[in-house]
Amino acid sequence: MGSEPTERGASGDSPPAVELDGVTKRYAETAAVDDVSLQVREGEFFTLVGPSGCGKTTTLRLIAGFEEPTAGTVRFFGESVAGVPPEDRDVGVVFQNYALFPHMSVGENVAYGLNFADPPEGMSREARIAELLDLVDLPDAADREPDSLSGGQQQRVAMARALAPGPDLLLLDEPMSALDAQLRERLRVQVRRIQSELGITTVYVTHDQEEALAISDRVAVMRDGAPEQIASPQAVYREPTSRFVAEFVGDNNVFAGRVTGIEEWDTAANGDRIAAVDIGGETLRVAVDEGTDATPGDRLTFCVRPEYLRIDGGESRVRATVASAEFLGETTRITLDWGGRDLLVRARDPLSGEVLVGFDPADAHVIGVDKA
Ligand code: ATP
Question: What's the CATH superfamily of 253-370?
């Protein structure tokens, strides 16, 4: 595992709000975080997403100062924070399980966050608490007991408490994972609104790739202790740089096969070409951009999102059989069997039996080429 992808200089002249520079954290034989270099820009909503055990929480704890790296440096605004304890790092942290004090009112919980800092000049503590509760959309909750609030409301109180000292950085570790799906969707809109209103640099941890796409400016998709791709949600979804990212983020169809020919493409203005790729004896046609070095004999890996596979449509058509269907409301998610391979398709109407399914070359995304 190396330090790719690194992002030196990504933020222009001003130093990044948070920088990890070759950071490793080992527990005995396990490298929970393995030589990670990444930068979070000031004001950015940056999300660490990945499967269980990939090192998200450990990365967040290294930023918060609950852990010190085994190797490498964590910097805030260009300054190393090595040896600086969490309470002196100007970070607000929100955990998965609200961690509100049950015997204190909501207002007292928020005031607890203020204990470590004075309210802004000329503002009373009461006014500051009211301001924070307004911010999280709970203006009348100061006298309520935490237990009388819903999970989503409690998590907003936890955010108000974390934000009370006016930290430079907000760190959120799976804050919505204890909530049901509908509440999560509502709360993520509120979290993003609060973050935008304050313009506070935020690092967010989730295992939920849909949440990561919905809420973030940029996403680091992590695997085995290091990011595999760091990019905008759109780029991570549309242009995954590895098979792992292609399959972790949303539904996808990933193919790998031998290139049998490269053709000029009349309709492409940007120098794209078409690769004919042999998959199990059938030829699929895939657009290959100018920068990709693909020649006959190479092994090409590419993906096509289910929404781009069309029944009775597209250029590269294959015959497949409906294996299963899940009705999801606005669409039906259908698994087709194509010579022993699964193909995922979205359809509005139910399907059965044998179908022709295809895609346009431009709707395929090349993940990588192994030279012959
Ligand atoms: P999850 O989504 O399940 O919380 P994660 O991506 O946040 O996972 P981490 O909690 O950062 O992953 O853990 C990364 C790896 O490091 C795991 O293999 C974990 O078992 C290990 N690990 C984390 N903390 C410790 C610790 N204090 N002692 C030993 N091993 C640890």
Answer: Nucleic acid-binding proteins (2.40.50.140)
